[in-house]
C-alpha cells in the first residue's frame, strides 16, 4: 500500500502556493521519491486520525487493511488545508434506463437480473426482429453506464444469433473467461467493501468541492501510475486502482466515477485525447459549471498544492490550452473560476 509523504506535502504547500504550475500526463517511466513514500507505515500525523470501526467480516477487515492508510493521509491534509466551500449545483442525473423505449428497457431488465447475479442468459436475436442487434447493444450500453462495476467482470457475446454473457475475473482481461462465479463474487465483494470504507470514512462537514478533493486524494494516495502499462487494456481498471493500487489514466478515471456515484456527486467519465495522445479524465460540477478533473496529472503533484488542486478543477480556458478533446459531444468544460 502506497502512503503519501505527508510531512513533505504540508511543508511544500507553503511554497507551492506562490506558483501554479501546469499538470502534465505522467510518462511511463514516472517516479518521484520526493512526493511519494514507499514506506509501509503511516505518518505520525496520520496516526492521530481515528477512523470508524471497520465492518465486521472478512471483506470489511481486508478493505480496512487496503485503504485506511490512504484515507488517513487524505484526512490529515484536508484538515490542515481546507478547500473552498463550494457546492456542486449539478443537474440531476437520471439513470440511462429511463431514456430507453419500453422494448429496449425489457432487454435491460433481463440483463440486469442476470449480470447482477453472475448468471447465464440466452437471448435469441432472430426471435426479436430486425432491430435486435442495435436494441440489444443500446440496452447493454445503458446497463453498463448505470452499473459501471459490471465492466469489471462481464461483457456480452453477440457473435451468433443467440447472445450470451461472458464473465471473467475482476482485475483480469476479456481474454480470460471463467465460470468461477464464487471467485467473481468474492472479488467484487472486496471491491465494494473498499468503496464503502472510503465513503464511510469521509470527514463530515465537507463542501461538495471538499468531497471531490477527499476522493481524489484517497485515489491518488492509493494508486500508483502503472509505468509498465500492464493495466491499459483492462475493461474496468477501477478495480486495479483501488484494490491492487496500480493503474493508468483509465483506472484513476473509473475509480473517481465509481466513488462519486457512491457519494452522490455529479461525475462523468471523459475519454478523448490530450495533446494528441489518448487519455481519460473526469468531468465534475462546481457552482453549476463543469470542470475537468484529471487525477493522472494530479498524482504527479504534491497533494493539495495549488498545482494539485488545479488538476482537480481544470477550467475551460486551461482545458483549451492543454488540448483536452473529449470524443463525446456535450462533455466540454465550462467553468472559469480557479477554486482553491
Give a verbal description of the structure.
With 340 residues, the chain is of the alpha+beta class. The chain has two domains: 3-87 and 183-326, C8orf32 fold (Roll); 96-167, no CATH class. It contains 13 helices and eleven strands. Strands 10-9-8-11 form a four-stranded antiparallel β-sheet.
Secondary-structure blueprint:
Blueprint: E1 3-4, H1 6-16, E2 36-37, H2 44-47, H3 58-80, H4 102-116, E3 123-124, H5 125-128, H6 132-146, E4 154-157, E5 162-167, H7 181-200, H8 208-222, E6 224-225, H9 238-244, E7 246-247, H10 249-263, E8 267-274, E9 277-286, E10 289-293, H11 295-298, H12 306-312, H13 316-321, E11 324-326
Parallel strand pairs: 6-7
Antiparallel strand pairs: 1-2, 3-5, 4-5, 8-9, 8-11, 9-10
Helix pairs in contact: 3-7, 3-8, 4-6, 7-10, 8-10, 9-10
The major β-sheet equals: 4 strands, antiparallel
| Secondary-structure class | alpha+beta
Main-sheet strand order equals 10-9-8-11
> Helical segment tally?
13
The protein's oligomeric status is single chain
Describe the global form: globular
Q: Remind me, CATH topology of the largest domain? A: C8orf32 fold
Instruction: Note the gap between the termini.
Output: 28 Å
Query: Ranges with pLDDT <50 over ≥5 residues?
Result: 1-42
- State the order of secondary-structure elements, H for helix, E for strand: EHEHHHEHHEEHHEHEHEEEHHHE
What is the average of the pLDDT values?
87
DSSP strand (E) fraction?
Answer: 5-15%
CATH class of the largest domain: Alpha Beta
The CATH architecture assignment of the largest domain turns out to be Roll
The number of E-state strands comes to: 11
Helix amount, in percent? 40-55%
Domain count, please report it: 2
Amino acid at each position: 500500500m502506497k502512503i503519501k509523504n505527508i510531512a513533505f506535502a504540508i511543508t511544500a504547500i507553503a511554497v507551492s502556493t506562490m506558483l501554479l504550475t501546469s499538470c502534465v500526463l505522467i510518462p511511463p517511466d514516472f517516479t518521484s521519491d520526493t512526493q511519494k513514500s514507499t514506506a509501509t507505515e503511516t505518518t505520525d500525523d496520520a496516526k492521530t486520525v481515528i477512523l470508524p470501526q471497520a465492518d465486521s467480516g472478512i471483506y470489511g477487515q481486508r478493505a480496512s487493511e487496503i485503504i485506511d492508510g490512504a484515507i488517513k493521509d487524505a484526512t490529515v491534509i484536508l484538515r490542515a488545508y481546507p478547500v473552498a466551500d463550494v457546492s456542486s449545483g449539478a443537474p440531476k442525473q437520471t439513470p440511462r434506463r429511463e431514456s430507453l423505449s419500453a422494448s429496449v428497457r425489457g432487454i435491460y431488465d433481463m440483463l440486469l437480473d442476470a449480470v447482477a447475479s453472475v448468471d447465464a442468459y440466452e437471448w435469441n436475436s432472430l426471435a426479436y426482429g430486425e432491430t435486435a442487434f442495435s436494441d440489444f447493444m443500446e440496452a447493454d450500453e445503458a446497463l453498463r453506464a448505470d452499473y459501471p462495476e459490471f465492466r469489471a467482470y462481464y461483457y456480452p457475446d453477440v457473435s451468433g444469433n443467440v447472445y450470451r454473457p461472458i464473465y471473467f475475473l475482476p482485475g483480469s482481461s476479456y481474454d480470460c473467461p471463467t465460470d468461477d462465479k464464487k471467485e467473481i463474487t468474492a472479488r467484487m465483494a472486496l471491491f465494494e467493501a473498499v468503496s464503502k470504507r472510503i465513503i464511510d470514512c469521509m470527514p463530515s462537514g465537507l463542501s461538495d468541492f471538499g468531497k471531490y478533493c477527499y476522493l481524489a486524494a484517497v485515489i491518488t494516495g492509493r494508486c500508483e501510475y502503472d509505468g509498465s502499462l500492464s493495466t491499459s487494456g483492462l475493461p474496468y481498471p477501477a478495480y486495479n486502482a483501488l484494490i491492487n493500487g496500480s493503474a493508468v489514466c483509465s483506472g484513476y478515471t473509473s475509480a473517481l466515477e465509481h466513488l462519486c456515484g457512491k457519494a452522490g456527486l455529479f461525475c462523468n467519465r471523459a475519454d478523448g485525447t490530450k495533446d494528441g495522445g489518448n487519455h481519460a479524465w473526469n468531468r465534475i460540477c462546481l457552482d453549476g459549471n463543469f470542470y475537468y478533473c484529471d487525477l493522472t496529472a494530479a498524482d504527479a503533484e504534491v497533494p493539495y498544492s495549488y498545482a494539485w488542486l488545479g488538476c482537480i478543477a481544470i477550467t475551460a480556458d486551461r482545458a483549451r490550452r492543454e488540448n483536452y478533446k473529449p470524443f463525446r459531444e456535450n462533455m466540454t468544460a465550462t467553468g472559469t473560476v480557479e477554486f482553491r
